Amino acid sequence: MQTDVSDGVAELARQGVIDPKRACIVGASYGGYVALAGMTVQQGLYRCAVSYAGVSDLNDFLEWFSPSQDDDRDAGTRYLRKFIGASGNDDPALHALSPSRLAARADAPVLLIHGADDTTVPIAQSRKMERELRRAGKPVDFVLLKGEDHQLSRDATRKAMLKAAMDFVEAHNPAD
Predict the structure, then answer these.
(1) Which end of the chain is more exposed for a tag (fewer CB within 10 A), N or C?
(2) 73 pLDDT band (50/70/90 cuts)?
(3) For residue range 3-42, what is the model confidence (pLDDT) as tens digits?
């Protein structure tokens, strides 16, 4: 899944549509995971990354989503494990795909934004990524949206998220 995004960036660069040295990546939810993976699972593609409510540790997310390792009766659990490609919550193969476990590999500044009341992706995912990036000495900013959910349901916080993302990208990838 990550290579599809990087292949798209490479193709746009090949066509002359974008300058590959000036690409940043921004995403929300699954796209937030993609933005974080673009800095850790792969490197050398982006000048900065913005993740809104992105999953940073796939094992922790599976454990939060369905704490029972052996219970596959729930269709949501079966779907999520299949979508992620996990044999179970503790599948060690997911370590190599979890951005927070690869934080030391991050090669550009990261902005994390998360709603405090998110019940789809717990804020612990962004907090863990922030902690691991700081531990690795990597540049990271964190914006907490108080009273906000996963869907950015409140107009004021939706605008705050967009402003924070734009300000961050402009600061780390200024127009020439």
Answers:
(1) C
(2) low
(3) 889 899 999 999 999 999 999 999 999 999 999 999 999 8
Query: Locate tokens 């066509």: which residue?
Result: 15
CA 39 to chain centroid: 9
Of the CA atoms within 13 Å of residue 11, those in its CB half-sphere come to: 6
**Structure tokens of 176?**
């020439």
What number is the average pLDDT over the span 119-124? 95
- Cα distance between residue 165 and residue 98, in whole Å: 22
Q: Which two tokens stand for residue 156?
A: 């004021």
For the chain, the structural domain boundaries read 1-6+23-55+98-171, 58-96
At residue 79, what is the residue type? Y
Question: Nearest-CA neighbor of 100 among 170, 161, 32?
Answer: 32
Q: What is the pLDDT of residues 46-68, one digit of tens each?
A: 999 999 999 999 888 887 877 66
Q: What is the CATH code for 1-6+23-55+98-171?
A: 3.40.50.1820
Give the strands of the sheet with 49-52, arranged side by side.
25-28, 49-52, 110-115, 140-145
Strand partners, 113: 52, 143
| 1, 8, 30, 141 from 57: Cα distances, Å | 16, 25, 12, 18
